[in-house]
Amino acid sequence: MAISSELASMDFESLVGGPLVAAVNAQSQASIAAAQFILNTAFEDPSGADPAKLKTVEMKVSKTLTDGSTTDVIINVPLLTMLQVPNLRIEEYNYVLACERADSVGCDMIHASLGYAEFDDKTKSHKYEDLNGNTSVASIGADIAASKGILLTVSAGNSGNSKWRYITPPADADSVLTIGAVNVKRKATKFSSEGPTPDGRVKPEVCAMGLYTYLQLVNGKMGMKSGTSFSSPLIAGATACLWQANPDKTNMQIIDAIIRSADKIKKPDVKYGYGIPDFYKAHIYLKKKK
To answer: DSSP label at 214?
Structure first.
């Protein structure tokens, strides 16, 4: 759909007392991308994709993000349309377009449960050497968004058991907070994608519950799902709360405090990163930091 003039002119910042969060969701890739957008608005898709299927993943991700949050309002913005189309590298450009659109309406945060590494055209697929934060278009775009003050959280990916096994762009960007998955025993899950980046940076930085994560299902009942697509929104929601409590801090100061609060800050590893963050500890650190 085309964005209506009324919708496009809305002052979203005036609607919320806390951070405005854009959730960029994708299970497969998007071909229409950033034009179809805003506040769970129903849209007509010319490809004929089933709208019910499009909403399913959005609901699972957004419910994990918002349930239990103490921010005034967290708005889910489905910037990318989930269509069963060929897996093409152009989707990285679509992600950047989505980030630009989120910036244009005043979003403070962007969460992305997606990643781009292997494409249908294998000659276009990324190699491990590309995970330097400066090769993937999506990663470059994410860092540009961060340079404008937006705080970005990204799922690490679910490739830990595959031949690829590594994180997927834009998770390799150096200015995003990348999140892996742990189980109830605080152990990294086998499926959670791993680092480090080829230039030696720790990725993922932190982890959260990603094996049988409790969330609200599309039928309105509570259930469990697994994946970094569900561990990362837990961190995104808590991050929004932390930033609301410390509005004078920058995006990178918030990320730094979260990392410093993690339980393996002195001994990170390739799957667990710096560990599970303690947001109260991060809050105290920020209050003491001038």
So the answer is: E
